[in-house]
Amino acid sequence: MNSAKSMLVLDGVTRHFGDVAALQDVSLEVGEGLTVCLVGHSGCGKSTLLRSIAGIETLDHGSILIDGVPVSGHGVFVQPEHRHVGFMFQDYALFPHLSVRANIGFGLSGLARSERDLRVADIIERIGIGALADRYPHMLSGGEQQRVALARALAPRPRLLLMDEPFSNLDRGLRDKVRLETMSIVRDLGMTAVVVTHDPEEALAIGDMVALMKKGRLVEAGSGERMYDAPWTAYAASFFSRINTIPATSSAEGLQTPLGRFPAPALKEGVPKVLLRPQAISLAATGISARVIERSVLGELEELSLAVEGLTAPLIMRGTARHDVRPGDEVFLQVNARQVMVFPDDDAQD
Ligand SMILES: Nc1ncnc2c1ncn2[C@@H]1O[C@H](COP(=O)(O)OP(=O)(O)OP(=O)(O)O)[C@@H](O)[C@H]1O
């Protein structure tokens, strides 16, 4: 993290809907100019958290500060329109009867006409949508609508930009391009942004910080690189990629597994389990004996599904190398010991 001031502070944020604990004691700080991605499976509370920051939801407990100003909690509730946040909805929610220019100017009604026109012209130029300014939403492609929605959210110069699944309505091919362009505009403007996504790759790609949620709780938060390379929890390890779970038993020499012996880190108690990314395994001339169940070429990557004595589930191996192997072939495996992750068994992955 850098030493920038905190633009958003969530402290013990809690919200129930009847019996459902949508948010439980969520605390997080986001430095100015950074993008945080809220990521997690459906129903984990991402949207409720975003809506709480926007002021569309109230809190049961906890508090929210935006740019140092309390906006929710401890008896305070600042109305959404006074929070200085820009909100970008998943479906863009552009007004169909207004031109692009009028859509962008919509949130600036408090300004004098000349000032409003200047602001709209400025953001249109920054986002590079001059050619679209006099069109109407139905005359725009999905990617163009997305940029107009971004311009509209940014025109009032919010302190915080909130984006709810902003790229999920775009086709795969367009999505990566629009995502790159959008996030570079957000970064160039020095905006602090909170982006909700259910896509682990998207979270890793765009978040300066990633906050992984599960059943209303924050599991862990940090840079995407740290969370992928050195997750603190088995849940995070398995959320961001496919993972092999290898049963282990502890002994004085370390952890015994069907894939050999690994050093045992100091774990509090319980039987540890070993997690192994598919790319930590490779074929070799000697090593652990295995049988090929299936080989699939996934474009850049090749995936082998392998049967290993002592493992009930197939072991998944992935890499860029191509192997001339067929189902039934006997092969040998090597495991990159530096990529072995060990967690207590009670750290559920579900
Ligand atoms: N207004 C509401 N009334 C009742 N329950 C709600 C309400 N809003 C959300 N919930 C519940 O709170 C939990 C969290 O929902 P939320 O929409 O925040 O999850 P999410 O992570 O954004 O999910 P998704 O990715 O599917 O949008 C869910 O169990 C949901 O059913």
TrEMBL record:
Occurrences of domain ABC transporter (ranges): 8-240
Record-level GO BP terms: quaternary ammonium group transport
Domain of life assignment: Bacteria
Keyword Nucleotidyltransferase: no
UniProt GO cellular component terms: ATP-binding cassette (ABC) transporter complex
Keyword NAD: no
Transmembrane segments: none
InterPro entries xrefs: AAA+_ATPase, ABC_SmlMolc_Importer, ABC_transporter-like_ATP-bd, ABC_transporter-like_CS, ABC_transpr_FbpC, Mo/tungstate-bd_C_term_dom, P-loop_NTPase, Transp-assoc_OB_typ2
MF annotations from Gene Ontology: ABC-type ferric iron transporter activity; ATP binding; ATP hydrolysis activity
Pfam families associated with the record: ABC_tran, TOBE_2
Record keywords, A-Z: ATP-binding, Cell membrane, Ion transport, Iron, Iron transport, Membrane, Nucleotide-binding, Transport
Protein family: Belongs to the ABC transporter superfamily.
Entry protein name: ABC transporter ATP-binding protein
Originating organism: Devosia ureilytica
